[in-house]
Design a protein that fits this description.
Layout (H helix, E strand, L loop, with lengths): L7 E9 L1 H7 L6 E8 L5 H10 L7 E6 L1 H14 L3 E5 L11 E6 L2 E6 L5 E2 L3 H5 L3 H4 L3 H19 L11 H22 L3 H21 L8 H13 L5 H15 L5 H9 L9 H17 L6 H4 L4
Parallel strand pairs: 1-2, 1-3, 3-4, 4-7
Antiparallel strand pairs: 5-6
Helix pairs in contact: 6-7, 6-10, 7-8, 7-11, 9-10, 9-12
The site of zinc ion has 4 residues, from helix 10.
Length: about 300
């Protein structure tokens, strides 16, 4: 539904980021905002500070307006305050709007901490269509990571490296491939801001998240491409969107896995994911460090663990 039709009588704690809020605030006059938190980082210390900085804590409901960082922070804050949460994505930039966990930065890696699923998600496809092209459909990277993540899951299975609870399940793998093919088909439309294309991208994100929920882990969609993204963020800084790091990760890992990378590259480009932001010497250094990095952070076994070892 259009954000302009939201009419919220309860007192609202708004969690947002300045660019997102400035882009949509004219349509959100129906929110009874009494407190506001602006988010710029993803650590629990930082979120705890933000939360304790709000003066009266009289809010009855949390509204999150923004992208992935805002969604992750709002899930954490709403679960701490024990308040219901409504998420209003301003772009389909990640899958964090619909997961039950918040990604946090710790010791140079990203960990997922269980927080809560938003009670309500309001999709305004006109608003999302108007988001900056480079983030509008960047969440495609969190579905396309099936290409390299599920490959890793099968690879780990063949080497006997999947721990108890993460056993390879062929029908789940097949379902993931089907979601991947759906997202590749909608990439062009979603990338140009077509509303049906964006809705299909949302459906693929939701199915990918649900599949991971059912099996209790994210091996069908998280592997070496994400490990590369987590590691390279230490060199590139925390300012780059998730897709700008995961997108190159998918390209690099799919090639190292001897997969046909052409269709993946075409879909990433269609969704305006920049693939040239990471200098090649940084890529090479990150790849050289990746096996040790993966061991150090206890990441589930994949191709990244074996680079340079055979
Ligand atoms: Zn991701």
């Amino acid at each position: 539904m259009p954000f302009s039709e939201i009419d919220e009588k309860r007192s609202v704690l708004l969690v947002t980021s300045a660019p997102a809020w400035n882009a949509v605030k004219a349509n959100l006059r129906g929110l009874n905002i009494i407190e506001t938190i602006e988010v710029a980082e993803a650590t629990t210390d930082y979120w705890d500070n933000l939360q304790s900085s709000i003066a009266n804590q009289k809010s009855e409901i949390v509204y999150a307006v923004g992208g992935g960082l805002v969604a992750d922070a709002s899930k954490y804050i709403a679960s701490k305050l024990n308040l219901p949460l409504v998420v209003l994505p301003t772009a389909l930039s990640v899958d964090a709007f619909i997961t039950a966990a918040s990604g946090i930065r710790r010791d140079g890696c990203v960990y997922y901490m269980e927080t809560k699923v938003p009670e309500t998600l309001i999709l305004d496809l006109d608003t999302i269509a108007k988001a900056p092209a480079s983030i509008r459909a960047a969440g495609i990277t969190d579905v396309m990571s099936i290409a390299t993540g599920a490959w890793d899951w099968k690879f780990a299975h063949e080497r006997g490296m999947n721990p108890a609870g993460m056993e390879f399940i062929p029908w789940v793998y097949d379902n993931a491939q089907s979601i991947l093919s759906g997202v590749l088909d909608c990439a062009e439309a979603a990338g140009r801001g077509d509303k049906d294309g964006l809705k299909t991208l949302y459906d693929c994100l939701a199915m990918e998240v649900q599949l991971c929920n059912q099996v209790g882990h994210s091996r069908p969609e998280e592997g070496s491409e994400h490990y590369f993204a987590y590691a390279v963020e230490n060199e590139m800084g925390h300012g780059l969107p998730h897709g700008d790091l995961v997108g190159p990760g998918i390209m690099i890992m799919s090639k190292l896995q001897d997969q046909a990378a052409g269709p993946l590259e075409a879909a990433l480009k269609a969704c305006n994911i920049p693939l040239d932001r990471i200098p090649s010497e940084v890529v090479n250094r990150t790849l050289a460090e990746l096996p040790v990095y993966c061991e150090k952070h206890g990441l589930a076994f994949g191709l990244a663990h074996t680079l340079g070892k055979q």
